[in-house]
Amino acid sequence: MLQQALENGVLTLTLNRPESLNAFTSELLDALADALKEAGKNEAVRAVVITGAGRGFSAGQDLKEFQGREPAFRQHLRHYNRVIERIATLDKPVIAAVNGVAAGAGLSLALACDLRVASSAAVFITAFSRIALVPDSGMTYTLPRIVGYAKAYELLTLSPKLSAEEALALGLVNRVFPEAAFAEKARAFAEEIAQGPTKSYALIKRLLKKSAAATLEEVLEYEAYMQELTGRSEDHKEGVQAFLEKRAPEFKGR
Ligand code: LHQ
């Protein structure tokens, strides 16, 4: 259901229900939440990739899970919200490797990640309004912050199918890689990030999250505090030394 593999500092979590385009069941969401919690504790993990098995990334909620009964929506969303909150508070970069279609809460999950890379074959659909729902899993928070209110309103109400190139033009994804080389390119991208100054990345994430609901004055204060922390790191010393010696730095995430 959820595959896990740790290699070269990158923990890859693969949603593995390909027969339903990796639609989410409560079980899959809980497994994902647990894996993210463990990733936070494991020092060997310096970046996390979430991707999908088969031809989809995730088609969102498994619409067969509640067949014949009414879901308790608010209660069910706790499974989603735990995942979204763990991504937001995880001090490590989380990359969505969108290998195929991302719809509904599958797209919400991708948008909650820090970076998104897409296969040229990927398709993006907000999908909620197509089944007369409102979005969940933070999409009304993340989407307007990425594309602005006007585009978010359009994407959420009309729910068009966007190609990877359209998603790139909107800033919904950071990179598009050709379908045939996607897995390899996405891995290389994630490994490059895992080799980076990941302690500094962690504090950049905290600063950006804080700035979403803070005044300039508060942000300036928080930046100064975080600068003290990164300024005393081994990686900062290595970064300056490497610059002075005109060589590439070797960061350790400390
Ligand atoms: C699926 C699904 C799926 C089950 C494809 N479930 N089987 C939260 C709380 C509580 C309730 C409700 O929702 C939420 C959050 C949400 O995420 S709401 C949004 C839910 N997702 C959708 O509405 C998307 C539904 N899927 C689609 O519109 C299409 O499948 C897309 C556009 C994603 C892909 O289209 P195609 O590439 O043409 O593939 P397909 O439709 O042929 O699907 C392939 C198989 O996957 C098929 O099974 P089958 O046995 O017929 O081969 C689908 O039934 C199954 N599948 N999505 N969400």
UniProtKB/TrEMBL annotation:
Name of a matching Pfam family: ECH_1
Signal peptide boundaries: none
Highest taxon of the lineage: Bacteria
One function term, GO molecular function aspect: catalytic activity
Family, per entry: Belongs to the enoyl-CoA hydratase/isomerase family.
Protein name per its UniProtKB record: Enoyl-CoA hydratase/isomerase
